[in-house]
Amino acid sequence: MRSHHDVLKFVLLATISWQFTTTQAIAQNQAQSDSAEAIVVTGTRRTERTVADSSSPIDVVSADALRSNPSVDLNDKLMTTVPSFNVQRLPTVDGASFVRPVSLRSLSADQTLLLVDGKRRHRSAYVDITPQRGAQAQDLSQIPEIAVQRIEVLRDGASAQYGSDAIAGVVNVILADRPGLAASAQVGQYYEGDGFSRSLAGRYGVPLGDDDGTLVISGEWAESDSTNRATLPMKVGLPSSSRTRLFYNMHRRLTPDISVYAFGNYGYARDKTWFSHRSPAGYVRSALQLGPDAIFPDFDLSQVYPDGFTPQFGSTTRDVSSTLGFKGNLAENLSWDLSGRYGRNSIRYSLTNSFNPTLGPDSPTSFHPGSQMQSEAGFNADFVYLLEAGLLQPISVAFGAEYRRETFTLKAGDPASYETGPLRDLVPGSVAYPGVTPSQAGKWGRWSNAQYLDVDADISQKLNLSAAVRHENFDGVGSTFNYKFASRWKVGSFLNLRGTISTGFRAPTPGQGNVTATSQSPDPLRPLVQLTKALIPPTDPVAVAFGGGPLIPERSQNYSAGFVLKPAKGFTLSVDAYQVVIRDRIGLLPSTRLTDQQRALLVNSGISTAASLDEYRFFINGFKTRTRGVDVVAAFNAQVGTGKVNATVAYNYNQTKILRSDSRFETLDVKQFYENHLPHHTAIGTVSYDVDGWNVMTRLRHYSGWIDNIFSGDLAVLNQHVPSETFVDAAVTYRMSSNTSLSIGAQNIFDNYPAMSGPILQGIGIPYPVNRPYEADGGQYYARVNFSF
Hints:
Elements: H1 4-20, E1 58-62, H2 63-67, H3 74-79, E2 85-87, E3 102-104, E4 112-116, E5 119-120, E6 148-154, H4 159-162, E7 169-175, E8 180-190, E9 197-208, E10 213-224, E11 240-255, E12 258-274, H5 287-290, E13 312-331, E14 334-352, E15 367-387, E16 395-412, E17 442-458, E18 463-474, E19 478-490, E20 495-506, H6 510-514, E21 517-523, E22 526-535, H7 541-545, E23 554-568, E24 571-588, E25 592-593, H8 596-604, E26 615-617, E27 619-640, E28 643-661, H9 668-676, E29 681-691, E30 694-703, E31 706-708, E32 720-722, E33 725-737, E34 740-747, H10 759-763, E35 780-788
Parallel strand pairs: 4-7, 22-26
Antiparallel strand pairs: 1-6, 2-3, 4-5, 6-7, 8-9, 8-35, 9-10, 10-11, 11-12, 12-13, 13-14, 14-15, 15-16, 16-17, 17-18, 18-19, 19-20, 20-23, 21-22, 23-24, 24-27, 25-26, 27-28, 28-29, 29-30, 30-33, 31-32, 33-34, 34-35
């Protein structure tokens, strides 16, 4: 447990926060019972469409619902409100520990599109190189909660409306845009006494002119200490983190028919985690040292690391973006919106408590293995024409064009992180994460342009029909044409039937086509033997020698059908079934071991990089999958006594099946990952009760079983099936005044842990499954104060 000094610091910080900090008053209420009538802007070009009237399923997550989760990461907050949205915790997997993989409907992270106020957000520089994943996605965690008014999650294919990446759906973050002052402070820590966290956030909005517009500035600072649940000389848990995030949002009317808007952000983060513990025995001696021509006869690594070493891996992330646009009316029935945007995300890695074996005693113990950057620029011209056709309402005819360019840059690390020293029979580069070499570094870009048409017609009071088509052309990749047809039919005043048919696509990113990464880790069956594993570009000579080549876009066929039922006042039920078939799906080949003969042939043919490789991987368009599932959301609110009850139950069933694949994907570990690495059943139930200034909230989260995909190849039979798990969260909020409230709560209040990991992982000190879709750190308690006016 934490020392008395640290506990006192916790209490004092909570007290100071109560007295001196501020944010919006919170009801700690996650219920979405009123959201059926909420106006939405995602998935439609109309301005009056509600959740219940939408032809596609949409979740509206309010600011209050976001605040009911103490995490400072919006990914975690959505995970506890939208059951088909999963976020994995990967405590020992390089950059994925910091930019965690997310999934909507069990699909890849980069198959869900992220928008901010309806505009595409730039990607993270991180290309996920963990086995079978390989996504380069947008990073929702860069957006501070305090800047958000609500989040709309469209659970349906929308590539015809928004372009690449919207195969699984769209997450649209709507920024706060109202005048006023709001702020918050929060502290928390885990029951085990570690992972102490603290955060401060504030938002200030001022009117511009005489109610002609608003400028809103939001900021958040958050720090959290690491956790450690490992045994033996390992460290396994949440990384330590320090984050500063700023956002601005402005809009102003310039003339009666023209307005200007702008928004953007700056983010800075530093994170640190650990790799596996290394024994010095595997690095102490070599043939060169023991032979008559020994180079460093007196060198012994145990003099530097007597008890072995655990490399510490860190990243420094900077994220900036800016969007500027003008919109207005050319005529009473014709509106326009012209905008431009730029975004950049850069990640610089660090490695400490390591060394380069080939340099012997001349090796440093700290390295900068390299950095990567993703930048994007885009321009949009959007128009909406309201066509009078004698129907109930004018037909909405939206059309427009988009130009986008994205660039991926890979920079070399410092020489000691990759160079080969005098001890050439040892594995070169910094142990655990060798650096990027100058020959691997580079800059790659791609442009695209698109044109779209979107028609939405209320044929009658009961029937709505809509259709969208989009053509998009990618430099070096080719063009794609996509469509979407949707319908909603009102069966009386209490039942809406809805359904969609659409195609979708996701273009390969420049990062996926060009990224190079090398890692080292102990052989699972021979801990003293280090394996060098490399992710190489699909057009690299080694990759081409084994069937690699340029990547092409993924393509999907989406179907959905469901209903929204409102049988009584205060009660709403929606059920939506879906199927997503994706062909030419991009994936990382399973790591393939080079034989000595293959390595010699490659080296003799001029591919010198093969000399230091044990295993290699690269991206290919390797397989076709089918994902089927159903979403169920029930919401209820009613007066009970002198208070009000709000309740929601949300359930998702989801299953993916590999229909066809490249023969190299026909392995047990690939099947386990794509078909079973996430729970098939997820349910979230929340009940809150408001009375006399008090709110009590309880949330239950249930996850069915899944497979921890650790081992590959013949060892995949050792991968563990993890049984189902249920967590309970609770919070109490007291509204001290109309604009001040205090919340005290706990995540995982009963301190549940998942089943223990298998004997091999436990043997190296990892007690719990690694690729888990939920926490494995036990319970966490927190206190939060909110103020607004």
